[in-house]
Known about the structure:
Elements: H1 4-36, H2 63-79, H3 81-84, H4 94-101, H5 104-110, H6 120-168, H7 178-206, E1 209-212, E2 216-219, H8 220-228, H9 236-262
Antiparallel strand pairs: 1-2
Amino acid sequence: MAGDTYIERAQARVRAEQEAIDAKLDAYETFISRVRNVQADQTPSSAAGITPATGGTHLSTDATGTDRCRTVQTAFAETIRPHSVADTDGSESLLETIREEFTDAVAVALAPTTETSFTPELKQMVLAEARSRSSEAAALQKALNREGAQLANAATAVDIITAWIVEANETPLIDLGFDALKQRHETLASHRDCCEDVARGRQAFLRRTTNQGIDTGVRHQSLMPYLYQDFPVDHPVLATVAKLNKTCQERQRAVRDHLVRRV
């Protein structure tokens, strides 16, 4: 049955995305650790820099503070950036990537031309943005894990029904007695019920949200375009069970015709 490959392809897609998110979470953890180890400018001139309230910057002639900003840029380039630009053509500059991942204020503060001192305030802002993005990635990871479990359950149901159909097809209906035909009709009805249960469960799942903390969550429905935009169908599970249900219905109709003739 051609439709059953939709779920198999969906499982492969989810596994690939899980691996990518796992790697990105590791990158965030490494980046946060490296930034923590960068000493903030504690000199009187450290008052110059970036303030979270205004997002403004002040020029500083302190080479040490500028070097520390470069150290943070390097840490970002070596950890987070490769994962952030993995799906692009690679033409995005480092500061553009920092702006996309964090904020304009952080990107401007870390820019070499700004010569901003690496103040405690700037350090905390960078760490806060990194933790926020890491929390969002963790929420996506959790949603992907739930999607993977949903796909596995659907695949099991589809495999059982498909295997039964393949085995049943080995015996032509003309060779079955009345009782065997009646049993096959009932089994097909049961399989159709199972398809409908899978579809209802899937729809209920898509309406829910995977929560990660108080402020971060991923609506399962929003994952579908993100995961399956290159698929020939928008909803691989629903498309698969709908096709399988139709197959069972057609076979059930054929069995019913034989039963009517026997009566």
